[in-house]
Amino acid sequence: MKLVKIPNNNLPEEGCGAVMFIGDKTVGLFKVHGDLLALRNICPHRGGSLGEGEVTGEIVACPWHGWEFNCRTGVAVENQEISVKTYKILSQSDGKYLEWNDE
After folding, report:
1. Is 51 helix (H, G, I), strand (E, B) or coil?
2. Distance, CA of 6 to CA of 66 (rounded, Å)
3. Tens place of pLDDT for every residue, the chain, 103 residues?
4. Residues 6+ apart with CB under 8 A from 41
5. What is the DSSP string of 35-50?
6. Strand blocks (E) in the chain
7. Are 61 and 52 in contact (CB under 8 A)?
8. Which pLDDT tens digit goes with each residue over 54-81?
9. What are the structural domains of the chain?
10. What integer pLDDT is reported at residue 81 of this predicted model?
């Protein structure tokens, strides 16, 4: 596990998502009720970019086929046996960091 600094230009606005690249992989970042949250950016249905999906409350909808996931837990709304990986975000004096363990 390593800490990866989240560039300020990757920080989404409230109620929005963003995509952050880490090498050749991506993470979906979401600002929900003031909290910065992170999910694996790949929808398990067909691989859509969750960071580009529409955010409503704590739910993000995949832009390809509308599959919905809770941004806090990664659990799918329609089928709780399906989920996407979540990542912990840490606040430090010099910014926000993501705990990365997908190397």
Report:
1. helix
2. 27
3. 899 999 999 999 999 999 999 999 999 999 999 999 999 999 999 999 999 999 999 999 999 999 999 999 999 999 999 999 999 999 999 999 999 987 6
4. 19, 25, 26, 27, 28, 49, 50, 51
5. EEEEEESB-TTT--BG
6. 2-5, 17-22, 25-32, 35-40, 54-56, 59-61, 68-70, 86-87, 89-92, 95-100
7. no
8. 999 999 999 999 999 999 999 999 999 9
9. 2-97 (2.102.10.10)
10. 98
Cα–Cα distance for residue pair 54/80, rounded to 1 Å: 20
Give the whole-angstrom CA distance, residue 43 versus residue 69: 9
For 18, phi and psi rounded to 5 degrees? -150, 165
**In this structure, are strands 35-40 and 54-56 parallel, antiparallel, or unpaired?**
unpaired
Token pair listed for 20: 């952050």
